[in-house]
Amino acid sequence: MTLTADPSLNHLLAALPLAELGRWLPQLEWVEMPLGQVLYESGRTLGHVYFPTSAIVSLLYVMENGASAEIAVVGNEGLVGISLFMGGNSTPSRAVVQSAGAGYRLKAALMKDEFDRAGPVMHLLLRYTQALITQMAQTAVCNRHHSLDQQLCRWLLLSLDRLKSNELAMTQELIANMLGVRREGVTEAAFKLQAAGLIRYARGRITVLDRPGLEMRTCECYAVVKREYDRLLPDKLAV
């Protein structure tokens, strides 16, 4: 497919120095990312890295019995497929599109070559990896120590940060799979947030009505993750 969007809509691509961006542009492939698309499966060798521009991708850990839980979300702030340049080539997690949109992808061999140049691209990707690891660690802590409605607030805020609107197309069953809890628990938590006037949920769509209210209701985990991304990956990154 021909390039029909602006690569700078992805923050990592926008942060590339001009020389590196010029080298990447002919190799970047614009792709649609429909809801539910699996970008990679557990244990499989990755063929591409993905740079979402309007899609959100959920990184899930899947158990032997099929149960799953989300360990991180990736949107226009980053990329999917860090195991490629970290040397592992595969990962035990699964990457699934949780909010439909689009983005760019780059072949695995090209990404490895860019990282191995040991220049500004490597430093940028390592900073992003540190931020992603923080999100994974904070998610584990949050799921263990905080209430379900706090977890739902955190999840909604992280998703909103990666979208241009205040509306998410998301069923309660899908949210339950992401958070690794029963659907009934998500229903109860969503009802509490709706009763408080923070969200409106209808027909598989969640509309956030009061973002400041969500930020006040959630635990500290959201702020910890956001601060780390802002610290390591500011909008105008000098690399």
Largest sheet: 4 strands, antiparallel
Tally of DSSP helical segments:
10
- Mean model confidence by pLDDT: 86
The CATH architecture classification of the largest domain is Sandwich
Kindly, what is the distance between the CA atoms of the first and last residues, rounded to a whole number of angstroms?
30 Å
CATH superfamily of the largest domain: Jelly Rolls
How would you spell out the order of helices and strands?
Answer: HHEEEEEHEEHHHEHHEEHH
Q: Please list the strands of the largest sheet in the order they lie side by side.
A: 2-6-4-5
Number of domains: 2
Low-confidence stretches: none
- Percent in helix: 40-55%
| Total DSSP E strands | 10
Keywords: DNA-binding, Transcription, Transcription regulation
Protein name: CRP-like cAMP-binding protein
GO molecular function: DNA binding; DNA-binding transcription factor activity
GO cellular component, one term: cytosol
Features:
239 residues, alpha+beta, Jelly Rolls, Arc Repressor Mutant, subunit A, 2 domains, 4-stranded antiparallel beta sheet, 10 helices, 10 strands, 22% strand
Brief digest:
43% of the residues lie in helices and 22% in strands. The protein is built from ten helices and ten strands. α5 (120-145) runs antiparallel to α10 and α6 (148-160) crosses α8 (183-195).
Tell me what you see in this structure.
There is one protein chain. The protein has helices spanning 11-14, 18-24, 83-86, 108-116, 120-145, 148-160, 172-179, 183-195, 211-217, 221-232, and strands at residues 29-33, 38-40, 48-52, 56-62, 68-74, 93-99, 101-107, 167-169, 199-202, 205-208. It has two domains: 7-142, Jelly Rolls, CATH 2.60.120; 147-218, Winged helix-like DNA-binding domain superfamily/Winged helix DNA-binding domain (Arc Repressor Mutant, subunit A, Orthogonal Bundle), CATH 1.10.10.10. The chain contains ten helices and ten strands. Strands 2-6-4-5 form a four-stranded antiparallel sheet. The protein is globular and about 50 Å long. With 239 residues, the protein is α+β, with helices and mostly antiparallel strands. This is CRP-like cAMP-binding protein. Pfam families: HTH_Crp_2. GO terms for molecular function: DNA binding; DNA-binding transcription factor activity.
